[in-house]
Amino acid sequence: MKEKSQSNPLREGLSNKAVPQPCAVVIFGATGDLTHRKLVPALYNIAADGELPPAVAVVGFARRPKTDDEFRQEMEEATRKFSRQAVRDEIWKGFAETLYYHQSEFGDEAGYKKLAERLDKLDETSGTRGNRLFYFAASPEQFETIIENLQKAGLNKTREGSWARVILEKPFGTDLESARHLNKVVQSAFSENQTYRIDHFLGKETAQNILVLRFANAIFEPLWNADHIDHVQITAAETLGVENRAGYYEGAGALRDMVQNHLLQLLCLVAMEPPTDLGADGIRDEKVKVVRSLRPFQIDEVGSDVVRGQYAEGAIAGEQVVAYRAEKNVDPKSQTETFVALRVRIDNWRWADVPFYIRVGKRLPKSGTEISVHFKKAPQVLFNRESQALDQNVLVIRIQPDEGISLRMQAKVPGTSFRIESVKMDFHYGTSFGKASPEAYERLLLDAMSGDPTLFARRDEVEQAWKFIDTIEEAWTAKENAPKLATYPAGSWGPEEADELLARDGRAWRRL
Question: What is the pTM of this model?
């Protein structure tokens, strides 16, 4: 049964809380890293905050033999290690009773039939009302197999008054063709309204606050255009290397792993037009328009507008680290990029001739994700006599860590001389509101349980993003005249070519 699109009360101005409904949450890949580090700790924190429905069951689905009690003990250890707040014994005891384990191979049809029987029993014992939330925390190669078996077991179908939803982790495909194929497979079993493609960057408090910053503050929106903004930078930096993800990363690289989803999502929030309303479709319609407006790269432009790099050996915080090609399970001749910098243009009236510079890299000196909006300089006329170069006003939106917003402006230095310096107004979520922001997965799980898809990617948005990215990949893998792979020492801010990308435009990267 096709699920009707639901609205969140927040979008109607009545409440700022999602209303999760009783349900069974089935996690495919329950013994994996994502479940241990993020999903179960997030569900515990939702319970600790009093927002988890009283009628809920969490069923871990994986192939390793395990009892319910063993699974609960394993999840308790993981939650105590990774939870954003300390685990309280009395709350954990009640939460643990909602955890169950179902052992099956992903391709075992009989295992799904037994899962269906178990979920029916949980409806009776736990009051989950036939509502099902299937979370794909398994390898993307398993998605098609899981969907086919859910369909064979009838788990995609619901009775009157209940719902079934599926949450899909990135990467959603590896190019446009594979994304279209996966979308087709998913929609053979679940409608678009039942499909939640997750991007945890959109669950972060500051990412959500971009819309409020822009559209709830009259001082910003009138200036948010090509008349007043010189350029925009989006940076995602990591000190970490590939760690234990070489098997995945060798086939993905920084462009597919980060730019196609996370950073293009942030670009959309910065660049979108005001939506007609704050409902899911209103916001996602405007985001899709941005992706469609991205000026496509021509094959011969990729070399000048896109820089790809790979870290060599170097030092991070005084500790020597090996080159990417020396990492475990990495091809010694690997051409996989660990750094990407792009100059992107949006062909619409608001952003005509305003470049967006995007960069992402591993083994950089500092970890952090931020958006910086660089306004055009004030006319020099009044200050010609002082021969002082005025800096740009820069609005910085920190996504992680230390979520917050800062604004750089000009001020006179106290004293008899007329000297101007840049000063910063700074807002921190933690200190301003007196409490830590919830983890991204907490917000996204709550939204999925309440049927609000606003912060999840829609099919057309995903496919348009891949269409934009595929041209870059095509140029990189061309047999002739492929842009070279630059290298940079671990602990530096990337290859020199990335600095040159902005220097040619008379600009420079902002240091985090």
Answer: 0.88
